[in-house]
Specification:
single chain; 339 residues; alpha/beta; Rossmann fold; 7-stranded parallel sheet; 3-stranded mixed sheet; 14 strands; 41% helix; binds UDP-4-deoxy-4-formamido-beta-L-arabinopyranose
């Protein structure tokens, strides 16, 4: 019997790539998204990629009528919960809204799942729950603490699931701590396209490459790293999507819950990323050294052996593919000629 998976936030960057991976893995998939951070044309793009009609509900997770419509229209076997606010800087300016969407929204979803007899959930967590890690590469049992309201909501989300799982053994959770998702789908049909000035490195470089921003600001070159700039464990979004399929397989086939880092185990610096993007787009990209960004840590690098042991996940794409897929997506989207 084909399993049906609900993707909250499924029209977003990671959600849309996971949608494709799940359909290709044989799951039936339903999207719930309020499109507050998603392109309106994502459902039709997903239909182009998969060749199948897309079941998509538009609505707010916090609206009980919306959840009723979704759970009354489909027999949901498991949920992948992407719908959340995720900008670290913005969260420091609006902590209440982050707590309301990311924490209250999670509780509302879990209560409606329980009412529907659905007890399997994959939770989008983040390496940000590690704060400034004391041990690098970071193991899953490293100390957790929050360095922003956004990180607080992810840590709180994990603790809500821990409390719920301890109280009722019908539940099983896949908690995936993403490191730095980048890149775009190889079809060139979906990718990251943040509104306004991007907070994150790769979408910012992409906008420099298409001429929408003048130069990259490198936030500090005086860190204790080989070239002085920040080191991150970037992971291709299609690898990340595949990790969700493997997490769901473990939850549904083996009733196994898990808490896993999803990264590559390889870190690159800001300047290494910039150089790789220059090779992808075939032109030099201007940058200036700027002051450090508050809240940044020098290194975020994942221990990745548990993901391999528990769900058989290993990242496959390297930095060149991450940059080439991003450039193919952004240049196609802006109708400029890809390199
Ligand atoms: C990467 C590196 C910056 C922009 C955040 C969240 C994390 C996750 C991913 C949601 C750092 C440098 C960046 C720029 C720069 N989000 N940089 N100039 O901060 O590691 O992680 O996004 O889950 O939770 O914390 O990602 O891409 O913002 O920064 O020099 O214009 O690039 O200093 O070293 P980050 P990032």
């Amino acid at each position: 019997m084909t399993k049906t998976i609900l993707l909250t936030g499924g029209a977003g960057y990671i959600g849309s790539h996971t949608y494709v991976a799940l359909v290709e893995a044989g799951y039936d998939v339903v999207i719930l998204d309020d499109f507050s951070n998603a392109r309106e044309d994502v459902p039709e793009r997903l239909e182009m990629i998969t060749g199948k009609p897309v079941a998509c509900h538009r609505g707010d997770l916090l609206d009980p009528a919306v959840l009723d419509t979704v759970f009354n229209s489909h027999k949901i076997d498991a949920v992948v919960h992407f719908a959340a606010k995720k900008a670290v800087g913005e969260s420091t300016r609006m902590p209440l809204e982050y707590i309301e969407v990311n924490c209250t929204g999670l509780v509302a979803l879990l209560k409606r799942m329980r009412e529907a007899g659905c007890f399997r959930l994959v939770f989008s967590s983040s390496a940000t729950v590690y704060g400034e890690p004391k041990v690098v590469p970071i193991p899953e049992d490293a100390e957790r603490f929050h360095t922003s309201p956004y990180a607080y909501t992810k840590l709180m989300g994990e603790q809500i699931l821990e409390q719920l799982g301890a109280s009722d053994d019908r539940w099983a959770f896949g908690v995936l701590r993403y490191f730095n998702p980048v890149g775009a789908h190889t079809s060139g049909q979906i990718g990251e396209d943040p509104n306004g000035i991007p907070n994150n490195l790769m979408p910012y470089i992409a906008k420099v490459a298409v001429g929408e921003l003048p130069a990259l600001n490198v936030f500090g070159d005086d860190y204790d790293t080989p070239d002085g700039t920040g080191l991150r464990d970037y992971i291709h979004v299609e690898d990340l999507a595949r990790a969700h399929v493997l997490s769901l397989d473990a939850l549904l086939e083996r009733d196994e819950g898990h808490v896993l880092n999803i990264g590559t185990g390889q870190a690159y610096s800001v300047l290494e990323m910039l150089r790789a993007y220059e090779r992808a787009c075939g032109k030099p990209l201007p940058y200036v050294i700027a002051p450090r960004r508050s809240g940044d840590v020098p290194v975020l690098l994942a221990r990745v052996d548990r993901a391999a042991e528990v769900i058989g996940f290993r990242a496959e794409y390297g930095l060149e593919t991450m940059c080439a897929s991003s450039w193919a997506w952004i240049s196609r989207l802006r109708n400029s000629v890809p390199a």
